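Weekend entry, working from home. Most of the wet-lab plans are on hold until the incubator is repaired, so I used the time to fold the two sequences that have been sitting in the queue since the last round of cloning. Logging both here for the record. First:
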Amino acid sequence: MTSRRLLPALGLLLLLGLLVWWLLPLASEPTAALVATPEAVDTRREKNPSAQLSRARVEAVYEAPAALVAELNSPRSTITGDLNLINDLFTNWRINFPRVGHPFGENSEITAALIGDNPLRLPLMPRDHPAINAAGELTDRWGTPFRFHALASDRMEVRSAGPDKIFGTPDDAVLTPPGVNPPL
């Protein structure tokens, strides 16, 4: 008789444990208001004066990506520098979205995620950046949309068509992040 009463209680405890396990990662994710704008810190501090994030830290997190892409397609840089900037942008993405991997999809979908159409509404580059064309694609210095190829969750190959604007020709520029074994 005791085991009949114990069995439903154990089932309820198991169900409660599964619910906590499922909700725990959601509770540990930062909210958009926490990281999206420096003003969010002031609002959070009003509610909780012992908030851990300082306004300066939030400003640094918010402004770092914008400063990172400021030189993209700049005349002071080269296509190699541009490809490295984009790789750094993806590294910044992985820091902000550690459980997600790279943004995925076509160029326009990846660009949309980078400009703030992501779960945190966190823009890693400005929507009006000159490297974004009218179709919402991230373009190289010659106006051709980059091609992105996810090699792993932590590595994204970035390809530019080069000055001739045609993919598959000798002037293409490609960045394959380290750690990827070249095809045999």
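Second, folded right after the first finished:
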Amino acid sequence: MNYKILGNTGLKVSELCLGTMTFGGGNGMWKAIGELDQKEVDSLVKLAVDGGINFIDTANVYSEGISEQMTGKAIRTLGLKREDLVIATKVRGKMSENPNGSGLSRKHILHQIDESLKRLNMDYIDLYQIHGYDALTPLEEIIDTMDTLVKSGKVRYIGCSNLTSWQVMKANSYAQYNRLAKFVSLQAYYTIAGRDLEREVIPMLKDQKMGLMVWSPLAGGFLSGKFTRNNASDTNARRVNFDFPPINKEKAYDIIDVLEPMAKEKNCSVAQLSLAWLLSNPAVTTIIVGAKKTTQLEDNLKSTAIVFSDSELQSLQEVSKLSPEYPGWMLERQGADRKN
């Protein structure tokens, strides 16, 4: 396991991060995503830590708070040292039916940080992230509130998730101008089957020296190895019951057609190759891997040992590349003479 610096900080995190969306289950989409009991959660956390993972990501909304509870309990049951772990959680989702039960208002954030700390049974959160954009709350209010949490000692660093480049830049520019805590990382969807992040977000992250935490690196299980062009997945696959995130499935099948023979040659899985492709990108800080079974997590952990040849990377680049889009193609055309 390799460890990388999270953005422009001194914090080291493992290149694989344990995701906890499968912890707890519940109603609606949470039933389709997880339903793991505490014993299964304990096994996954132990396997992850034994495999070198020091980074665990959860959210208050996962299984309506149950995921945070189970994560904290697993850490205590296993006797893990809090200081050895980097714990991340998120705020924004709907946690109650009252008018202020969701969003990123100062009221909601200040209430939810205390609720998350209670569920996790911890004194502080290493990385507290806003889980998305809130059109009703000014970014200035959000940053002011998150800075309050850092100054209070309840939070060490702040991050964001599912924001556009301009939203991140507006928030961090306000923070820098007013000497407040800035977002040090972005958690975003990125996969070889969905490379949209490369158009504007990744260039912004590189320029601003921010960390990138990748969610759904296997495209919601589409790159797990269960899906092929000529073979329907078993009905228990998450993608069958919860078809998210959206992808161009025909293009994804083209990518799988390249990955499958490569996996056979390297004696590994399609999932391992998909994760390793992300790890080969220097813009990626960590990949969030979630699992329902220990065998899935064991398979994911092996991705850190895979090395691609130049020709293999080129073939994956060619089959998965983005279609040209304005202004990207014009910037490339005009700016070629000014590149280092």
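Plan for Monday: verify the second prediction. The chain has a mean pLDDT of 95.
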